[in-house]
Structure formats: C-alpha cells, structure tokens
Amino acid sequence: MEKTSPLKIFAILTLLIGLIEQGLMYFLGSDLVSLHPFLMGMLDSFLLILILFPFLYLLGYRPFAKNIDKLSQAKERAEEAHDRLLSVLDSIDAIIYVADMQTYDLLFVNRYTRQIFGDITGKLCWQTLQVGQSGPCAFCTNARLVNAAGEPQMYRWEFQNTVNGRWYDIRDRAIRWIDGRLVRMEIAMDITSRKNSEEQIKQQNIFLHNVLESLPYPFYVVNTDSYEIELSNSIAQQLGIRKGRKCYAATHEATVPCHAEQHHCPLNLVKKLREPVIEEHVHEDEEGNAKFVEIHGYPIADEKGRISRMIEYQINITERKKTEETLRRISVTDEMTSLYNRRGFLMLAEKQIKIADRMPGELFVLYADCDKLKWINDTLGHRTGDQLIMETAGVLQDTFRQADIIGRLGGDEFVVVMVDESGKESVNTVKERLARAIVKRNELPDRTYVLSISYGIVSYDKSNPCTMEQLLSKADHLMYKVKKEQGGK
Questions:
Q1: Which domain holds residue 63?
Q2: Which of 33, 201, 261, 293 has the maximal Cβ count within 10 Å?
C-alpha cells in the first residue's frame, strides 16, 4: 500500500472539517446559534481542535518526534564514539594530551600520561609536563602548528623530557576543539631505548674511529664486488686511499685490478681462500721512488657467509727490505772487493752447473791468486797488499762479462765461472783476454809494483758431470802447477 502524502491528507482533512462544521451548524439550527453564541463558539472550537488533532499529530508532532529520536540516537552514537576514542587513546602506550594554545590549559590527558605525571587535567602544560619553567617553554611548538594561511599543520621533533629524563619522538598538531578553538594535540612516543642504542653506536663509532686513527699504518675497507674503498683512516687518505676510489687506482694508479704478473691481488686471494693473506707489493712514494709495502688482507663475511668486504692495511717495509738486501749482500759478497764471497760464489756456481747440463755451449772455471802478495805486504805494507787484491778484482771484472760469476774465496784466491753459449770461447782465448788486461793495468803510471796473477783454467765436461767443488779443485791444482813452473809465490 502506497504512503499518502501530507498534502493529500491536508486536503482531505480540510474538506472533512468543512463538511462536519456545516452539518453541525445545520443540525443545531440558526436560532440556537443566535441564542447561545458563546457556547456555540466553544463547541465549534472544540470540534475544530478535535478534528485538527490527527492532522497536527501527523504533520507536526510525528515528524518532530522522529527528529528528536534521530538527534537522540546521534548523540548516543557520538557519545559511544567519544568513549571508544578515549578508550583507544587510553590504550596507546604514548603520551597523548590536548592543551589550549592560548591559555596552555590541559584539556585532556590519556591514561599513559596520567601514569607518568598524575591526573593533570585542567593544569598548565608547562608547569606539569616540564620542570624549571617560569612560563611557557622556550621550545613550545605552538607557533609551528599554524601556517601562514592560518591552517593547522603538524610538526615532528625529538626531545628529552625534563621530568623523567626520557627521550620522545613527538608529533604536535593543531586541531579544532569541540567549541571551535584551536588546540594543540601532542602524541609523544618513548624512544629512550632507541636513543640509548644510537648513543651506544655513536660511542662505538667514535671508539672505532679512534682505534683506526691510532694505527700507524694506512687502514681501509674494500668492497669485494666493486673494488671500491668504503672506509679509510687519515693516514690512508693522505696517500690518496679515499672512500669511493678503486683500491688498485688508489694504491697503484692502475686502471685494472692487480694481476699475478705484476702483483698478486690480495682481494682476489681473500675471496678465493676465504682466509687472511699477506702479500708484498711495490708502490711509489711522493717522489716516485720504489716503496716496498706488506699488504695484509682480512675477509669480512656478510650474513649469508659471502665474503663481501676486506679489511686491508699496509706496512711500509722499504727499510726492512733495504736491511735484508744489505744483509744478503753482506752474506754473499766480499766486503773488500764487492765480489761474491765463497758462500755466494758456490751458491750461484752450483746453479750454473745445473743450467749448463741442459744448455748448449761451454762452461769454464778459472782459479787464480796474486803473485808476490807476501813480499808486497812485508816490503810495501799491508795497505799496498790490500790494493793489490782490489786491483786483481778489478782486472777480473774488466776481463769477464757481467753475466760471469766472479768470487773471492779468501786471501788472494779468486775464482770465475764463465759460460759461453756461442761456442767461440776456449781456454786460450780466455788466457789471452786476461793477459791483455794485466798488461794494460801495468802500463798505468806511478806504479810501485808489477801486477802478476797465476791462474788455472778448466772446462766443464758435460759427459762426465762433477760438482763445482771438484771443478775448483782441478783448477786450483792447475793454478799451483803453473805458479810453480813460473816460480811465483
């Protein structure tokens, strides 16, 4: 059944009222109306009200009652929403409060806030939420919560509360209160644990930085995928080993990583072996001179166990290498003549015999000593005798090639190992060259003695291999035979 519209009801009731009133007047008659007009007016009004009552109920009271009911329901829903909001705010573990932006009165505080500061609703925020304030806080954010156009906005900041000393991540926002005024709503999350962790990390970083800076070596961390330096101490930075540079460019001014022919790359070795490595490299110093460095590389694995970083530091071992070279030279060379001593000569000569067994050509061994050294020492002095020994060494160096091995076994005894790969040399040609060198030396002016050298030369027989000691013994025997024949001493 379709609903009847109010307009239809109004028209029907109007027609009905008119008919009833006319019928009533006709029934009562005009005489009665004229005799009792007051009573008839009252009766007429009562009948009119009685007839209009359904109309007023349908068109007036009923819609109004419905509106009242809707308003009541809306109020109940608003109150329920308000209670739910308060319940939500009270369940949040964060400081939440609302304060008047003009008077600083606290209009609302949630349960979490009350647990910390007590029930401070109605009090001033700067008096209860902070200590030591004689007025609104200097760091108050009210001025930041409204933009130039007067529109509310949010401001986020971090602050250490002066009451409990804890750190908070704060979000302040201007909102409209129930009565339309602007108020500040603040939500502050406790981040003390995070700040403590950040401070701990900061202190650890400071400690790590101090440790790295206290190292006397260039120290840096390299990405094993990109070869880029990710961290370096100040000593490394002074050498150009800086963050963002490729390690091979920073250390060798190279455009590609180190390779085995030049230097073994510590980074590639660390990735391959998955263990610390130590390599020696040759770098250049600020003046372009060779600098020997010992590279220490240590792998760093990521959470998946992959070697993703390498710790590397350099130790300048140039002085050590020089010392080692000096010690090596001292251990294998003769101090007076700078020729190889017995140890150095035998070490190289034995290797030369092994090479001669595999290579074509001839190998000759010469054993020589200075004639009349005792006489020179006794008559001209030991200084002149030392000069004779050094002069003999010079003659041998002038006679033989740089590739030949020349040594002083001790006293006035000298040995030479000569390799002739061309096959053009012989015992006689060697004797001729040596004789010419001796004659040339004796032709120098202002000499106080005649240089004379006795020697024996033997060739190595590949078909009958022997040791260097055996060859020297043969040459020595031959030398003494020649010396005896010449009457030398």
A1: 6-25+41-83
A2: 293
Read off the tokens for 194.
């995070």
Q: In this model, does residue 1 exceed pLDDT 60?
A: no
pLDDT at site 104: 95
pTM, to two decimals: 0.51
Residue 397 shares a structural domain with residue 437: yes
Judge if 63 and 132 occupy the same domain.
Answer: no
Is the predicted pLDDT of residue 233 greater than 50, yes or no?
yes
Check whether residue 338 and residue 477 sit in a common domain: yes
Q: Which of 97-101, 175-179, 397-401, 427-431 has the highest mean pLDDT?
A: 97-101
Burial of 197 (0-12, 13-18, 19+ CB in 10 A): exposed
Quick check: is 34 in a domain? Answer: no
pLDDT tens figures, 52-110: 666 666 666 666 667 777 777 877 886 787 778 778 888 899 999 999 999 999 999 99
From 321, 351, 370, the end of a domain falls on: 321
In tens, the pLDDT along 126-166 reads: 999 999 899 999 999 999 999 988 889 999 999 999 999 99
- pLDDT of 367: 94
The domain tally of the chain equals: 4
